[in-house]
Amino acid sequence: MKTSTPYSKQRFVLGLILFFTTMTSSQISKNYGQRLDNTQYATSAAEAALSEMFVQGLGKTSETLELENINGSPYLNESFTKGKVFYKDSLMGEHFLRYNAYSDEVELKRTVLKEESIKALLKDKYIYCTISGVPVVYTSYSNDKEQMLNGYLLKITEGSQYSLYVKKTKIFKEGKISTNSLAQSIPPKFVDETEYYIGKHHDNIKIHLPVKKRKLLQVFNIALRPKIKKYIKQHKIKLKDKNELVKLIAHVNTLHL
């Protein structure tokens, strides 16, 4: 009787993890962020893959866009870049990846051949990837309206107390057709939106990081707020600048209660 080896089990789990949704390169499907109360969670990658087969349409809205008629791009980078896929910090394989900031999906190909169809990585909190060395994690977060959502965040920096994340979104804006010869038509376009989030150590929910100092301070432990406020003032930290926020979070991680 055959016995399963650790390698064969890993291959089986990988097959379940990479349960993909086929997409075409000329069209794109929009999947909006899912509220937590409409999301079904699974306790393993195998359960997640099987669950997705049955709840794929739950809480989602789809629309098809013809990209050649739209200014801008839905991607952070049009090109597929070789990256790594992980399950619970175990490396499951290397693939060609790119992040679709409009549909909030990680698109994947096994090769760079044009004839190969594009797939989408299964959205699961145990599964994450790295694109150009940057971790892309599927997680829960509270946005600026205090709505609890699930979606992809890019991890910028990690610390002992706090980690910094960024949410890159491409918003689709409808165009306007001119009704007379005096006015020009306005083509549809993608508009960039950037938001920053902070994750506390051992906290599964990432919190929106406001750009106003008073509100930003409320995100941190009350005992740290005077020190953080002083640091922002002394170093003239610009709260909308990524590099400045990296400096701020690095400093906060040196503070003690």
How would you describe this protein?
This protein is α+β, with helices and mostly antiparallel strands and 257 residues long. The protein has two domains: 6-209, no CATH class; 210-257, no CATH class. The chain is 19% helix and 33% strand. It has helices at residues 6-17, 45-55, 213-217, 225-235, 242-252, and strands at 27-29, 34-35, 64-66, 81-87, 90-100, 105-109, 119-120, 127-131, 134-142, 148-157, 162-173, 189-200, 205-208. The protein has a five-stranded mixed β-barrel with strand order 9-10-11-12-13. The N and C termini lie far apart (59 Å).
Give structural attributes:
257 residues, alpha+beta, 2 domains, 5-stranded mixed β-barrel, two-stranded antiparallel sheet, 5 helices
The portion of residues forming beta strands comes to 25-35%
Largest sheet: 5 strands, mixed, barrel
Gap from first CA to last CA: 59 Å
The number of distinct structural domains comes to 2
- Briefly note the structural class of the backbone: alpha+beta
Give me the side-by-side strand order of the main sheet. 9-10-11-12-13
